[in-house]
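FIELD: query
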Amino acid sequence: MSYGNCCLVSDIAECTEVVEDKAMIFKKSDVTDLKEKLQMLCDAPESVEGYKTNAADYVCEKYNWDDVAKQTLTLYR
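FIELD: result
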């Protein structure tokens, strides 16, 4: 996401909590749903562009390394 890519992730918490609504999500272990979501993205390049437009700014702001480092230092102090 930080490179401005459209992501397709499974619906496990480790993924959905990171991407929120900024990526396409498919049902874990559901090959049919994965296929459908891939097809949706292939059929709707404007949707892919929408995800790409929002991805980098969102993830880089939410997981800014400088902020994470400062919070970690504060925690250890």
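FIELD: remark
The CA atoms of residues 11 and 27 lie 5 Å apart.
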